[in-house]
Amino acid sequence: MGFRLDKIRTLIWVGDSKKRLKEFPKQGQKDIGDALYLAQIGEHPPFAKPLKGIGGGVFEIVKPFDKETYRAVYAVRVGENLFVLHAFQKKSKKGIATPKPDIEIIKRRLKAVKDLEESDEKKRKV
Q1: Where are the beta strands (DSSP E) in the chain?
Q2: pLDDT for 53-101, tens place per residue?
Q3: How far apart are CA 39 and CA 42, in angstroms?
Q4: pLDDT tens per residue, range 23-33
Q5: pTM of whole model > 0.90?
Q6: How far is CA 75 from CA 27, 29, 68, in A?
Q7: For the chain, which domains are there?
Q8: Residue 111: CB partners within 8 Å, gap ≥ 6?
């Protein structure tokens, strides 16, 4: 499947998500970076899944590495860009659910991004 360079979504890092990703092991950074690139060009990354309970268009990349689990959450249904909302290491050993404090960060950042995009859209119409 081909893609057009003019159709690549701009990647926007929200909050400290890029800084947090840079704290991951190098291979984890590479794997998540590769997955984000696939999302930028309109492909579905192989280890990304919809993040439940947040709303449509928000996906979680889950990458096990060296007995740890690293995650990055991104939104694709907000304007024309791809927003990386959060990156974190899942530390809880109970179940596979995303920890509540991380969910709260994601929700807060998603709301901020949506509000900003809505404001920018209104400015473009004037």
Answers
A1: 11-13, 48-50, 58-65, 68-75, 82-90
A2: 887 889 999 988 878 889 999 998 777 889 999 999 987 666 667 888 9
A3: 5
A4: 999 999 999 99
A5: no
A6: 23, 18, 24
A7: 5-125 (3.30.2310.20)
A8: none
